[in-house]
TrEMBL record:
The keyword Transmembrane helix appears for this protein: yes
Annotated Outer membrane protein beta-barrel domain residues: 2-135
Keywords: Membrane, Signal, Transmembrane, Transmembrane helix
Transmembrane portions of the chain: 20-38
Protein name, per record: Porin family protein
Signal peptide: none
Keyword Hydrolase belongs to the record: no
InterPro entries: Beta-barrel_OMP (IPR027385), OMP/PagP_B-barrel (IPR011250)
Pfam families documented for this protein: OMP_b-brl (PF13505)
Native source organism of the sequence: Shewanella pneumatophori
Length: 135
């Protein structure tokens, strides 16, 4: 999965983000049963979120994001009789994330983030390591 975003901070601890994310794979959260198999899962979408952070020190912070994502989910549903049905759906869903980050004096930052994004029948739970730069 990847997530590219821009964040505007209107106060020291609060801001808003807009971004694009995309990924593949994962486990369907909806029960499909023993008569079907899910393959070729792909999702992508645009997101916007409110951002808040709590400074642990001058360079370390904990943060949280809460917002919405307009996304597309597609996957193949393979039945026990070997027939394959391709499914594609678009919707607006919840976007949430929590994480820890460190910012260096150069403006470069690193973070570890857990994302929870329910996308229609799929629930994305992602742990990522990222880099950022503060202009």
């Amino acid at each position: 999965m990847y997530d590219i975003y821009y964040r505007y901070m209107w106060q020291d601890s609060f801001g808003v983000e807009a971004g694009y994310f995309s990924g593949s794979g994962g486990i369907m959260s909806a029960f499909v049963g023993i008569i079907a198999k899910v393959n070729h899962i792909e999702y992508n979408g645009f997101r916007t979120a409110l951002y808040g952070e709590y400074m642990l020190s001058q360079s370390n912070r904990l943060y949280a994001k809460l917002g919405a994502s307009a996304n597309e989910l597609s996957y193949d549903l393979e039945a026990s009789n070997d027939s394959v049905k391709s499914i594609s759906d678009r919707d607006v869903d919840l976007f949430t994330a929590v994480g820890w980050g460190i910012r260096f004096k150069s403006g470069l930052g690193m973070n570890i983030e857990y994302q929870y994004i329910p996308i229609q029948e799929l629930t994305v739970q992602n742990l990522s390591i990222g880099m950022s730069y503060r202009f």
